[in-house]
User: What shape does this take?
Amino acid sequence: MIRALPIPPALLLAGLLVAGHPVAVSPLGAQTAAVGAGSLVIPRPDLGAMEPGPREKIETLQAALEAQLAEGDLSSDRVREGFGFLGQLFHAYELPAAAETCYAQARSLSPEDPRWPYYLGLVRLSAGDLEGAVEALRAVLALTPDDLAALQRLADVQLELGELDTARRLYQRALDLEPERPAALFGLGRVAALSGDPASAAARFERVLELQPEASAVRYPLAQAYRALGERERAELELARRGEGRVAFADPLADVLPAIATSSAFEVVGSLAGEREGFSEESFLGFVLSQLGSAPGAVDQLDSLLASLREGGAPAWQIGRVEYAIGALLVGHGRDVDAVLRFQAAVRGAPDLRDAWVKLGNAQARAGQFEEALAAFDRALELSATDAATLRKRAAALINLGRGEEGVSDLERAVELDPADRQAWTLLAELRQAAGDPQAAVATLQAALEAMPAASERVSLHVALGDLQRAARRFESAAREYLKALRVDEQHVPALSRLASLLGELREFDRAAEVYGRWIAVEPDSRQARMGEASALILGGRFAFARDRLEAGLAAMPGNLDLKDVLARHLAACPDPAVRDGARALELALELYEAVPTPESTETLAMAYAEAGRFEDAVSWQERLIATAADEAADTLRERWQANLELYRKGRACCDGGTE
Assistant: This one.
């Protein structure tokens, strides 16, 4: 029996056994340029149509193999197992030409290993190369004569080639090794049928179905055998019961192929964590997050891995690295408190794991543990004093502790190390603004803009600079910054919202309404944008357009009560009589009050009743409003309510002298 393929430790280090994805099938022979060492060739098929997960697996192992070949030791286990495993990957993802190349080279490197000729036979079968498959499967049996899977495969191929006597001998050899083996019995039944012996065929097929009732595909040849025997009723019965269930047989090596595409990455994590030389925190964590980030039960399975490692006496640094992986997964699940405990365990076991210190500090900061976060960032900076992002995070922790002035030097160092760190520049400007030096804050952001290579990063800086200019009441300068941001990204919502509100403050209502409209085009469900547009249109005297835009907004957001209130009031109290609509206002006001019976909705309802000509109702609701809410209302509000009540008592709507 050929042994099932173990997971080679050297290959686990490449991070390959991960959850698979459907991939595009590459035709046999679709192979591009290759890299070789001597006679060995690493296949480079076109992977462009492949899903990212499978492609990354293949490319990772290709790179690992290339590095091994460059070292020149072609007899190493890594090279032998590497070609075989790469062949399995190609085979599993239906790239047979590349798989065949790898299997052939693994076979040449390990001529005594029956795995590689067996896989070579399988891939040749899948490509329709029956003669090539026979050669490979015979090579397997020369090494392991009693391998049942190889016997079965070779017998099936010989049958396909019409070599009935050879097929019969091979099937019988399999039966000698495993009496009443269903697959061998089925093969002998097919040989009997082709040899003109329907009685023997029927007997074999009947026994197969007794042993494997689910093998419904056998019922078709059984029906043919019955028909040849003149038993038409039995033949019709079997035909009616035929299906797609094939005769199954154990094939451990073939079963590995789908497992490669679907198996867990948890063993890989343990093996990667155990690598002494060349361990990369970034690569390790990238693998964990990409392969396990959305895997159900990943944390529990990694805990099981930890238990296994501890039981096996694994070193503390390997256990610490796995704890680091678990902490990162917990952060992704929003479980910062649990993540803190895992990162603490990680750095106890692997104190030189710099990123674990950083992530510990991040999680502690999110949990409000700023003193502890500061200590973690300090430890990370001991390991890498020139890490700009950690300096920025340390400064943020100081700010949260009320020690912002201490964070200035961290941020100055951060932007010196990484001039493209937009967050550090912005934070530094905020600190200088808070220290009462707005000119220094503006200069900081201007320097950031000059240092920032990416236009997309400059967008936020223009907005921040606009905010500083606005706070200093330099409104034209602020507007220019917002417009600069919008020239880079015309859909940038923070720039649109700030520019629109600034134009409103400057009483440029038409321009403000236009910018609010652009914002709505980007975010149709933004309450703030809809309300801002309506306010700008009303204040600009564009009453009919305001009504239409409010109706459009309510159609887009039918459950928004603020829009409903503004529209009802606009229809009840608009200065333009052509826009007022008491019936529609009352409809909206009644819906509003039913949803939220507040003083505000009560006032709106009274206004709508008045515009609809129902003054008694308007008086009644306005009196109720004053009786229940006047004691807690501001003086100006009470005065307005009383003035409107007097109008209603005189049979006049509030637009005739009241306040909208």
Residues 52-71 form the longest helix (20 residues). The CA atoms of residues 118 and 621 lie 89 Å apart.
